[in-house]
Specification:
The complex is a heterotrimer. By secondary structure, chain A is α/β, with parallel strands linked by helices. Chain A contains 13 helices and 7 strands. Chain A has helices spanning 3-11, 19-44, 58-67, 82-87, 92-100, 133-146, 166-177, 197-200, 209-213, 225-240, 270-277, 281-291, 297-319; strands at 74-76, 154-159, 182-188, 191-192, 195-196, 217-221, 246-251. Chain A is globular and about 60 Å long. The relative contact order of chain A is 0.16. Chain B is elongated. Chain B is built from 11 helices and 17 strands. By secondary structure, chain B is α+β, with helices and mostly antiparallel strands. The longest helix of chain B is centred in the middle third of the chain and has 18 residues, at 256-273. Chain B has 3 domains: 2-98, Beta Barrel (OB fold (Dihydrolipoamide Acetyltransferase, E2P)); 117-228, no CATH class; 246-443, Chloramphenicol Acetyltransferase, CATH 3.30.559. Chain C folds into 2 domains: 8-192, Thiamin diphosphate (ThDP)-binding fold, Pyr/PP domains (Rossmann fold, 3-Layer(aba) Sandwich); 204-333, Rossmann fold (3-Layer(aba) Sandwich), CATH 3.40.50. Chain C is 37% helix and 20% strand. Chain C contains 13 helices and 14 strands. In chain C, β2 (31-35), α2 and β3 (60-62) form a beta-alpha-beta unit. The chains are: A alpha/beta, B alpha+beta, C alpha/beta. Chains in contact: A-C, B-C. Chain B binds chain C through residues 12-15, 42-43, 95, 99, 101-104, 107, 109-110, 112-113, 116, 146-151, 167-168, 171, 173-175, and chain C through 14, 45-46, 130-132, 136, 181-182, 184-186, 262, 289-295, 297, 311-312, 315-316, 320-323, 326-327, 330-331, 333-334.
Chain lengths: 342, 450, 334
């Protein structure tokens, strides 16, 4: 073992994560990047009308997912949380089903892509309306506390723009008053479609609002999955053990435009984007793991191939599935059969 | 000036209050805005300030009593204050009173749209001699009618121009159409007769186009297309036979005396009135008398029960060359034989001239058919208009009969036949009716007052 | 309708709501009431008076002043297994919660293909005649009845209130429960004891008649009955249907009645344009045009933003029993 490797290994702050867990985090990041790209590829192929990217969020979401207790915690994400969705147990097949709007999709092809929903995984159904899901998360957290279910908490996420919504404020306030088991994880990628942070808020450090609500707040490097894991883990543990809610903010950057319907060059410069690309968390964490001797270059390569294979298989399998029937439109309006003039 | 204080409304949805404590007693002075009583509701407790300065003259509601808001609880005699204050109170009271359910002056009550009134419905229209335009005219009249009226008029083959409307501005209502339809085949047929042109006379007896001929002039080997009148007659006959179980009975009546009476009067009657005097009015007179004794014969079967009619409106069946109509003598029981003769004479005359109105054809409760005029000896008529029965006068025949003292005499005999709706009337009533009718007819004449 | 015991009592609508909520709280631990001033104050009409003493502050929650999240948090509770009954203090305050009701609660089952559901009740007092002016008098059903996935009921007889509130609480889908505030203490009636439900979507013929069908709900049913009874003295026979349910609406009852009377008058307190009457008119015109012997009419509030505080303004906006009787009379005579 080279001296530099030993040194680096010693200086890697793992916050208790094992090699397996670190590899799992990395794989999640790779898979997220791969599935993200697949969406754009299919869109450019004309196979799916819409895709929404999450490049830049990989570390934040993989680290947060690692802190999420499957089968216990509840996730209330928003539509850029591809990494969190697969991180808590959704499969690439399920992701592709939603891209292709197949009948087999959790939502029966009714929702836009990226609007995941899975009772099995504990992922709450949500709409495209920013911040509308945050009171839902608050209500779910209330239910956990009401039923005295210790060891369970709600992880709710949103972007920087959403923190301007009234319902964001109302939910934070209520959660604090009632000391609910909830963690508000803000994924601050510094852009809300075309609105930069400077037009969104006067105080750019969102976590500082926590004091105003009477709850703990913290900011961390959203490009660092281990730091993310640490922050989310501590906050979730606090919530699970009756310590109440927290507001934690991971700062990262949105490398792509908002979606396939957006042209980000109309409101920011190539230079700004490429400057931030230097902090791309995926190659960065690759370097960290290899340097720390957690993975070899070959293992990394193998992992990337495996991720591609998995993505391809999921794509083919999902594409082959049928669309919903026209008659499916009428289902699930209320419990029971639909009637005209009902 | 006395001011009445009422229980205030202490809350948006409060409807009553309880007098908790009087802070003044009768005779005490009280200042405007000074609290003089405590009142409570289940939402709020409150002190009530006096609206005027004066003396508390009288307490009307004792402590602990609950009354509805607006009920007087005390009277204050106003002292020295300007009258303006108490007027204000009174105006407020008036407003509070009038607030309940008086229409606010000037409130714009929306008017019924008049454009939907059927334009032709206000007066019945005679359509003689209008030929092919009649059908279009009926359609045009429907255009302004409500959807229900249009549908019902079509279903029942009724020309609404012939109906007197009972709705606003003389509008023909759906109920008007239904009433017209319920009047039975005669009314419906009559309606059709009114709206159809009269059969042209003196037509050459050759087959029409496509080997057709007319009902008035049937030719063997041809098809007579159904006029709307014939169609209605067919439908109504089927309906009557289908719905009412017809039973039949007959009596033989010695009309010798009534015939003598008629013979004695007929010339003078025709001279004075211009109408012919037949046996019909005598017969109808006897019929209405028998109906008064047997009211079930003047009834109708309905799902809810047997409706015994109050009025006695006798339909007179009149056979015309191409049609059958049954105009009605209204309140026939109130007419003398002469009155019946005039009424029926007028109807028969107008029927022959196709001048009957819809009103003539409506409202019958019992029907008489003078079949004897055609030479019939006995017949089993089909009941008309959902009535309980229909009675016929058959031809008068001179016959040898055995008299009361076992002698043989030549008498004028007439069969009287009755078809009855067995749902309404049994043999007991029907036979009783016929026997009564026979007795009355045989007791009439040989002279009397018409 | 299953009635546990044969006894009954006379209650007003406040008491009917209170008793129903109390029983729901007692019988189902998952029931939580939340809203402004519902706890210590016991609701501004005293509907939940002393509930907090018996059930505790976790079950009777005094929320911050934040209508959107009152409903939104209730949606989250419902998605996660509780049976929340959210209160909006006055219907006039409901607008901030519009997205949570229409965009979220009504669509939860639909957008998740049936995987997540939202068994939520939102209760709110509405309606005028109490000098409530612009912000304490409004009728809101026309804004919401358009939305598939949402149910709306507006009973105004105490027995109906209890049965339909129970049905709303049991319903697996979101129900907007409208309580006409003027009827709270004004309307009293016999209410059977014990638990029973009235199916949502069934109207009730409160008075049979043969010459005119009147369809109404809320406070106006009572005034329409007053008018119809007055007309009965004049020999006119008017049928009065209490809708009770705005969505789903009992089209069968409406059509059956119209086919009998051939004339339809819809009376509602809300503005005329786009009110409930508009949908009923269209439906009846579509299904029973050839039964109609008169144009369908709607007696409703004029299309102005609100009834004013001053009494003449309130009266002009609202329809009195006298006005209702006059319109009924015109239609019977038409």
């Amino acid at each position: 073992m080279a001296k530099s490797e030993i040194q680096v290994r010693k200086t890697l702050e793992r916050h208790g994560l094992s090699d397996e867990q670190l590899k799992a985090i990395f794989r999640n990041m790779l898979l997220q990047r791969q599935l993200d790209n697949r969406g754009f590829q299919l869109n450019r192929q004309g196979k799916v009308p819409f895709a929404l990217g999450s490049e830049g969020h990989e570390a934040l979401q993989a680290g947060a997912a690692m802190a999420f207790k499957r089968g216990k915690d509840i996730l209330a994400p928003y539509y850029r949380d591809l990494g969190l969705a697969i991180g808590i147990g959704l499969t690439p097949y399920e992701i592709l089903l939603s891209l292709f709007a197949r009948a087999e999709d959790h939502n029966g092809g009714r929702q836009f892509p990226n609007h995941y929903s899975s009772k099995r995984a504990g992922l709450m159904s949500f709409s495209s309306i920013l911040a509308a899901h945050i009171p839902h998360a608050t209500g779910a957290a209330y239910s956990l506390k009401y039923r005295k279910e210790a060891g369970r908490a709600v992880l709710v996420t949103c972007g920087d723009g959403t923190t301007s919504e009234g319902e964001w404020h109302e939910s934070m306030n209520f959660a604090a008053v009632h000391k609910l088991p909830m963690v508000m994880l803000v994924e601050n990628n510094q852009w809300a479609i075309s609105t930069p942070l400077s037009l969104q808020m006067a105080e750019p450090n969102i976590y500082k609002r926590a004091e105003g609500y009477g709850m703990p707040g913290e900011q961390f490097d959203g490009f660092d999955p281990i730091a993310t894991y640490d922050a989310v883990h501590r906050a979730m543990e606090r919530a699970r053990s009756g310590g109440g809610p927290s507001l934690i903010e991971g700062v990262c950057y949105r490398f792509l435009a908002h979606s396939t319907d957006d042209n980000d060059m109309t409101y920011r410069t190539k230079d700004e984007v490429s400057e931030n690309r230097k902090h791309d968390p995926v190659p960065r964490f690759e370097r960290v793991l290899v340097d720390a001797g957690v993975m070899t270059a070959e293992e990394v390569d193998e992992m990337k191939k495996s991720v591609l294979r998995e993505t391809n298989e999921a794509t083919d399998k999902a594409e082959a599935m049928p669309y919903p029937e026209a008659s499916d439109l009428y289902k699930h309006v209320y419990e029971g059969a639909w009637e005209p003039w009902q | 000036m006395a001011t009445t204080i009422t229980m205030p409304q202490l809350g948006e949805t409060v409807t009553e209050g309880t007098v908790e404590r009087w802070l003044k007693k009768a005779g005490d002075p009280v200042e405007k805005y000074e609290a003089f009583v405590e009142v409570s509701t289940d939402k709020v407790n409150s002190e009530v300030p006096a609206p005027v300065t004066g003396t508390l003259r009288e307490i009307l509601v004792q402590e602990g009593t609950t009354v509805a808001t607006g009920v007087p609880i005390a009277i204050i005699d106003e002292v020295g204050a300007a009258t303006g204050t108490s007027t204000q109170q009174q105006t407020r009271d008036q407003m509070a009173e009038s607030a309940n359910f008086e229409p606010v002056p000037g409130f714009n009550i929306p008017e019924m749209p008049t454009k939907h009134v059927a334009p032709a419905a206000s007066t019945p229209v005679r359509t003689n001699g209008q030929g092919a335009t009649t059908a279009n005219g009926a359609e045009a009249a429907l255009r302004g009618a409500s959807p229900a009226v249009r549908r019902l008029a079509r279903e029942h083959h009724i020309d609404i121009r012939a109906i007197k409307g009972s709705g606003a501005n003389g509008r023909v209502t759906a109920d008007d159409v239904l009433s017209a339809a319920r009047m039975g085949p005669s009314a419906a047929v009559g309606q059709a007769v009114i709206s159809e042109p009269p059969a042209p006379s003196k037509k050459p007896a050759t087959p029409g186009p496509g080997n057709t001929s007319t009902y008035g002039e049937p030719i063997p080997g041809t098809l007579i297309p159904l006029s709307s009148a014939r169609r209605i007659i067919a439908e109504r006959m089927v309906e009557s036979k289908h719905n009412a179980p017809h039973a039949w009975s007959m009596v033989e009546v010695d009309v010798t005396n009534v015939w003598k009476w008629r013979t004695r009067e007929k010339d003078r009657f025709e001279r004075e009135t211009g109408y012919k005097l037949t046996l019909l009015p005598f017969f109808v007179r006897a019929v209405v008398e028998s109906l008064s004794v047997f009211p079930l014969m003047n009834a109708k079967f309905k799902p809810e029960g047997i409706f015994v009619e109050k009025a006695v409106n006798i339909g007179i069946a009149i056979g015309l060359p191409a049609n059958l109509v049954v105009p009605v003598v209204k309140n026939a029981d109130k007419l003398s034989i002469k009155g019946l003769a005039l009424a029926s004479g007028d109807l028969i005359d107008r029927a022959r001239r196709s001048k009957l109105t819809a009103d003539d054809l409506q409202g019958g409760t019992f029907t008489v058919n003078n079949n004897g005029a055609n030479g019939s000896y006995a017949s089993a008529p089909i009941i008309n208009g959902g009535q309980a029965g229909i009675v016929t006068m058959e031809t008068v025949v001179k016959k040898p009969v055995v008299t009361a003292d076992d002698a043989i005499a030549i008498r004028q005999m007439m069969n009287v036949c009755l078809s009855l709706d067995h749902r309404v009337v049994d043999g007991y009533v029907a036979s009783g009716f016929l026997a009564d009718l026979k007795r009355r007819l045989e007791a009439m004449g040989p002279s009397g007052v018409l | 309708m299953a009635i546990a015991s044969s006894s009954s009592q006379i209650l007003n609508n406040v008491e009917a709501v209170r008793e129903t909520l109390y029983e729901a709280m007692k019988n189902d631990d998952r029931t939580v009431i939340l809203g402004e001033d519902v706890g210590n104050r016991g609701n501004v009409f005293l509907i939940t008076k002393d509930f907090i003493k018996e059930f505790g502050p976790e079950r009777v929650v005094d929320t911050p002043i934040a209508e959107a999240s009152i409903v939104g948090i209730a949606v989250g509770m419902a998605m996660e297994g509780l049976r929340p009954i959210a209160e909006i203090q006055f219907a006039d305050f409901i607008y901030p919660a519009f997205n949570q009701i229409v965009g979220e609660a009504a669509k939860t089952r639909y957008r998740s293909n049936g995987e997540y559901t939202c068994p939520l009740v939102i209760r709110t007092p509405y309606g005028g005649g109490v000098r409530g002016a612009l912000s304490h008098s409004v009728s809101i059903e026309a804004l919401f009845y358009h939305v598939p996935g949402l149910k709306i009921v507006a009973p105004s007889f105490p027995a109906d209130v209890k049965g339909l509130l129970n049905a709303a609480i049991d319903d697996p889908d979101p129900v907007l429960f409208l309580e006409h505030k003027k009827t709270y203490r004004l309307i009293k009636g016999e209410v059977p004891s014990g638990h029973y439900t009235i199916p949502i979507g069934k109207a009730d013929v409160k008075k049979t008649g043969s010459q005119l069908t009147v369809v109404s709900y809320g406070l106006y049913v009572h005034w329409a009955l007053e008018a119809a009874n007055a007309l009965e003295q004049e020999g006119m026979s008017v049928e009065v249907i209490d809708l009770r349910s705005i969505r789903p609406m009992d089209r069968t009852a409406i059509l059956e009645s119209v086919r009998k009377t051939r004339k339809l008058l819809i009376i509602h307190e809300d503005n005329k344009f786009g009110g409930i009457g508009a949908e009923i008119s269209a439906m009846v015109a579509e299904e029973a045009l050839f039964e109609l012997d008169a144009p369908i009419r709607r007696l409703a509030a004029p299309d102005v933003p609100a009834m004013g505080y001053a009494l003449p303004l309130e009266e002009e906006y609202m329809s009195s029993p006298t006005e209702m009787a006059e319109t009924m009379r015109e239609m019977v005579r038409f």
